[in-house]
Amino acid sequence: MSDFVICINNDSNPASLLVGKVYRTLPDAEAEAHNMLRVIDEDKSEPDGYLYPASMFVPIELPDAAKRALTAGGV
Question: What distance in Å separates the CA atoms of residue 8 and residue 57, rounded to the nearest whole number?
Fold first, then answer.
């Protein structure tokens, strides 16, 4: 799975996710086995992220400069 995803559906979590926004994912093999992703969302109070259905996101590849900027910015 990509380290970054774009939210394509926030129907069940409009306060925590913004459609069209890029989010960083964290590795979680157990979550992925259940079609879930561990995502650092808008709340950011949980450094280990929150679990969301993978169907709410599309994986993307970013240029290295964008990855560094998003990771340094705490996304």
Answer: 5
Instruction: Report how far residue 42's alpha carbon sits from residue 30's, in angstroms, rounded to the nearest whole number.
Output: 23
24 in Cβ contact with 75 (< 8 Å): yes
Residue 73 lies in a domain: no
Domain span at residue 28? 4-60
Asked if residue 1 has pLDDT above 80, the reply is: no
Domain contains 34:
yes
> Each residue of 10-57: pLDDT tens digit?
998 898 899 999 999 999 999 999 999 999 987 777 888 899 999 999
Cβ neighbors of 66 (< 8 A, separation 6 or more) are none
In a domain, 51, yes or no: yes
30 within some domain: yes
This prediction's pTM? 0.84
